[in-house]
Amino acid sequence: MELTREVRFSLTEVAANTKPRNSWAGWPASDRLAPYLLLRVTVRGVVDRRTGYLCNIVTLDRAVRDVAIPLMRETNQRDLANGATHEEVLRHIIRPLEDVMPEGAELIRLELRATPFLAYTWNKGNSEMVQITQSFEFAAAHRLHCADLSDEENRRIFGKCTNPNGHGHNYVVEVTVGGEPDAKSGMLLGVDRLERIVNERVIDVFDHKHLNLDCADFAETNPSVENITRAIWNRLNGAFDPVTLKKVRVYETPKTYAEYCG
Ligand code: NI
């Protein structure tokens, strides 16, 4: 069984006489300008038959508050001129957190969310590797239609999605890349570079287009969310060298998404 706990906090000094809590404001909360972060801790283990617990989440909260947050604050303050990279901070807290995991709970994943749209992930098994997931968006029109089928057949399969003049979506794309951070820069690849490549190869090509009519990717295939996801994978695969493309997820709506890993 795997269990994940999200701990919310800011990298500010702990105010005296405040009690830890894991609410929306996080703890320590901050009224001052300080990074607000989320850390998702995933553990694996056996569920206790009596309590139904893999481990008590209070112990996970405590591990993050007592060990990870002070380390992150310290790392951030040590070199204020350059700041620590998210990759460095993430790798810095793995071992100390492993050491304080409750009995029977093996730390297998850490996800540090720097913004609602940007996450840094470590997975057990490849301790040198860090993954970055960044969200993007584009608006486009499409029509689901098979030319070799009758109008009636198309309506039966695709319903209103086969409307002759198309319809639109606000697509959200999550791109995950992974590799070993550069020893000198402390980064896997800058978020700026990641964004530039995705913008050039995907967003600028698909945004505000009619996918069937304007984009060669869908000259032969229906621009379903599955095919859009694969087309984006093909456009990005190999583009981040030496960093590897790990996953592409595309949300057609908040209720429907497709994922492709090659
Ligand atoms: Ni649609």
Which key features would you list for this structure?
about 260 residues, alpha+beta, Tetrahydropterin Synthase, Chain A, 2 domains, 9-stranded mixed beta sheet, about 30% strand, binds nickel (II) ion
Report on this structure.
The protein has 262 residues and is an alpha+beta fold. The protein has two domains: 122 residues, 6-pyruvoyl tetrahydropterin synthase/QueD (Tetrahydropterin Synthase, Chain A, 2-Layer Sandwich), CATH 3.30.479.10; 127 residues, 6-pyruvoyl tetrahydropterin synthase/QueD (Tetrahydropterin Synthase, Chain A, 2-Layer Sandwich), CATH 3.30.479.10. Helix content is 29%, strand content 29%. Strands 1, 2, 3, 4, 5, 6, 7, 8 and 9 form a nine-stranded mixed beta sheet that branches. Helix 1 crosses helix 2. The longest helix is centred in the N-terminal third of the chain and has 22 residues. The protein starts with a strand and ends with a strand. The model has no long low-confidence stretch (mean pLDDT 93). The structure holds nickel (II) ion. The site of nickel (II) ion has 4 residues, from strand 6.
